[in-house]
Design brief:
Structural class: mainly alpha
Largest sheet: 2 strands, antiparallel
InterPro entries: DUF6197
Order of helices and strands: HHHHHEE
Strand content: under 5%
Number of domains: 1
Length: 148
């Protein structure tokens, strides 16, 4: 797991941990819409403002990732797991489904990219949703802070 350096033996970093790291990243470095990272900042800047998915990528990899295909196997699995937890949370609490011109739902899940990029969205809403998704994962999958 690359979200933390030299993790203690036997400690598992969960999707909830990664979502909280992503929320903290956005609080510290800023939120962005439209792309993973604000391209007004130099490409070599390690901590640019990010969208929700970009912040999850940094939380998983420990560095700026332009596309999830750049992640190695274990890190990619962590990224996809954390993103799936976030999508499940959005589906349950903030559904935003894409509908075609005939009124049919195009995608059965809320896109974290479309949700993040909604013109009415705020940084605080994104940060709060990441933290709430982590809390929901903990509520459903842990007992007293330990994995069930």
């Amino acid at each position: 797991m690359k979200a933390i350096q030299n993790p203690p033996t036997g400690v598992q970093v969960t999707p909830a941990d990664l979502l909280r790291c992503a929320a903290l990243y956005l609080r510290r470095h800023g939120w962005h819409q439209g792309t993973y990272y604000n391209n007004l900042f130099p490409a070599d800047l390690p901590t640019p403002p990010a969208c929700a998915a970009g912040a999850i990528g940094i939380a998983c990899a420990g560095y700026r990732v332009e596309h999830f295909s750049q992640l190695d196997g274990d890190t990619l699995a962590d990224y996809l797991a954390a993103l799936a937890v976030f999508v499940d949370y959005l589906d349950d609490f903030h559904p935003l489904f894409l509908v075609d011109e005939d009124g049919f739902v195009i995608d059965e899940h809320t896109s974290p990219y479309s949700w993040n990029d909604d013109p009415g969205r705020t940084a605080e809403q994104v940060i709060t949703a990441l933290e709430a998704a982590a809390d929901e994962w903990d509520r459903l999958l842990t007992e007293g802070g330990e994995n069930r």
